[in-house]
Design goal:
- With 224 residues, the chain is mainly alpha-helical.
- It contains 10 helices and no strands.
């Protein structure tokens, strides 16, 4: 029985994501104390920057030899109007899921990223971390999951790819209580990528979501 073309790339991609998830859960269950207000610390910025750049490097290595435009879905969406409509639907779904789960789970507290308030003396560190969380992370995660990951999993069918990408996206964050909303968000972004055939709308939505969550957490809009 011959190996399907590109199956070795899928194994490599799955292995990288599996290691990422395993490290995340190992750290979570080891019981180590999470730093208070991590977005106000420079070491969190450096760690996040290195993590996402290394992950991007691994993705480029897995995709070596493939046309990057096709492998990562780096193409103009079929319709920006359709992309906007699906993005709006994604926001509605996430709000409904969050409202349903918040009384039972506390995903934001578990992740521990959103600050409890604004601390002006740490503005520079917050700005640097904001760039990582609201810009670098969405770009790298979309390229990793909805880009290359979806391309490699699409052989199993579009719906299988949507579901699997959502699941591994959630697991890669190494969280427990936040896992359900992360999986739903990952599936919605994968659906957006599938319907538009582009990774760009997901990047924009992901960046806006992360950025707005952080800005609302520090009460930015009420202060300006």
């Amino acid at each position: 029985m011959n190996e399907r073309p590109g199956a070795n790339r899928l194994v490599a991609w799955a292995t990288i994501i599996g290691v990422l998830a395993a490290l995340g859960y190992a750290g979570r269950f080891a019981g180590g104390k999470q730093p208070k207000e991590p977005l106000y610390h420079w070491d969190n910025f450096v760690g996040g920057l290195v993590q996402f750049l290394v992950l991007l490097g691994f993705m480029l290595l897995v995709a070596r030899g493939l046309p990057k435009k096709e492998a990562f879905a780096l193409r103009r969406p079929r319709s920006w109007g359709r992309a906007a409509a699906i993005a709006f639907g994604t926001v509605v779904v996430i709000l409904v899921v969050s409202a349903a789960l918040d009384p039972v789970l506390n995903p934001n507290k578990e992740q521990g990223l959103t600050p409890n308030g604004w601390e002006p003396r740490h503005a520079a560190a917050f700005a640097a971390n904001f760039v990582v969380v609201a810009l670098l992370a969405p770009v790298v995660e979309e390229l990793t999951f909805r880009g290359l990951g979806f391309t490699l999993l699409e052989r199993f069918g579009r719906w299988a790819a949507i579901v699997l990408v959502g699941i591994v996206f959630g697991l890669a964050h190494g969280l427990v209580e936040a896992l359900p909303p992360l999986v739903v968000f990952g599936m919605c972004l994968a659906y957006l990528r599938d319907r538009t055939r582009s990774v760009y709308p997901g990047m924009i939505l992901h960046a806006l979501y992360n950025g707005l969550v952080l800005l609302f957490a520090v009460d930015f809009f009420h202060r300006h």
